[in-house]
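Quick one: structure for this chain?
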Amino acid sequence: MNELARTEPAPKIWPPKTWPPKTWPFEEAAKLAARMQATGKDVALFETGYGPSGLPHIGTFGEVARTTWVRQAFTALTGLPSRLIAFSDDMDGMRKVPDNVPNRDQLREFLGRPLTDVPDPFGTHESFGAHNNARLRAFLDGFGFDYEFISATDAYRSGRFDEALRQALRHHDEIVAVVLPTLGPERRATYSPILPLHPRTGIVMQVLIEKVDAEAGTVGWRDPDDGTVYETPVTGGGAKMQWKADWAMRWAGLGVDYEMAGKDHIEGMKLSGAICRILGAEPPAGFNYELFLDDRGQKISKSKGNGLSIEDWLKYAPAESLSLFMFNQPQRAKRLFFDVIPRAVDDYLAYVAKAQAQAQRGETVDESNPAWFIHGGPVPEDAGSPIGFGMLLNLASVVNAETPDMLWGFIRRYSPDLTPETAPFLAQLVGHAVTYYQDFVRPKKQFREATEIERAALADLAETLRGLPPGTSAEDIQTAVYEVGKRHPFGALKDWFGCLYQVLLGQTEGPRFGGFVALYGIPETVALIEQALTRQPPD
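Got it. Here's what it folds into:
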């Protein structure tokens, strides 16, 4: 898989007259650069957050990738160093036993306790939180992200947050006053930003704080079950903060300069920003990205199971195409389902081809090109493919491909220099194309009969192709196909190409037909047309 790690370009004087490129990562980087100039800091701190009650998912990838791209743009724009923290809120209390873990019954007695105090149901780590943290780190490492991992449990218990927690006690009533208007009547009656850990059960308690002693760093509270009164130190891991206040405390305590979040956290970010200012710090720069929709336009939900997982995507296409999908228009709601994959792959290939062409001409690669971000800088020579994904899908459809070898026979004839060894990325695409074809294209293939106008045009095309010399280029074949379409009374040329895809391939659309003919072969295409013409025309 490609690496998304940042590059180390030469420092730049910000802002040059012709900079930065007009892409959203550079727009975000400019906002952060202005913040850095105002604060006088010389190292930018980025953060992404993770709730380890579940496994990493496609949204996790999107947030870390997008943050990495802003970081890359910031480095290119300013030359300043930066760090990225992946923060795990593993001190959060376990609210329910997950459905997808073994030994579920053994976890019930640990409800309410920090995830790092819950035994690992898989039996591989010292706690359930540690297990899911390991999965997160393996996930991020697998994509080559450059980050530093911080565990909330470690940060709280090591004393790293002690001063920020004392500051929260000093401003306890102000924080409560900001939060209360956002709560319902029942929660409002007991709300405090401080969640003490029960000294006997270890449960993260959501109780009314009856006493705040900022000087001693303690809170007083009453056990709702037996009425016992406790005075708990907030330092050293004796307590944690409610998540919106916790978010603000992390920003202040760690000195976070940039963090983005989903659109569903807009109000939460505003509230956390207000608390951050109460704590004496400026909230980080950032933006809210849109959420994904399914093929019906409904918001993707893990509980509904209507989403597309990262494993799903990587089964049918390379990671670079997923990166491009995440890169494009993050602040617009996008449908995330299987039909978007082929377009994402071919768009990625087009960006790579453009970057490689610039490099071959000795030009500086355009830093507004998504491929520059996806590859963390210069695009490798072995990235990309001379054959598009849509083309491979059409070839797989025509030959009813069962294995990649069936496609490689045509590819080698089309270009003898192309082999799985000389074109490893193409080899990936071939394998993905066969899988995608078998699961999505083949079940939907539906040929229609040609009309009389179309039959005449198809017969003309077959005769035209027979007259082309061997080795005719894809462009010349495409020109010939155009000329045939112009000779017949189609309402528009798109109707002619619609005929080719629907009558010959059993699909509603496809890539440039001239390229397909060059890959599949002129004699084979003529035979395909003749086969279609043997069908009876509609009444």
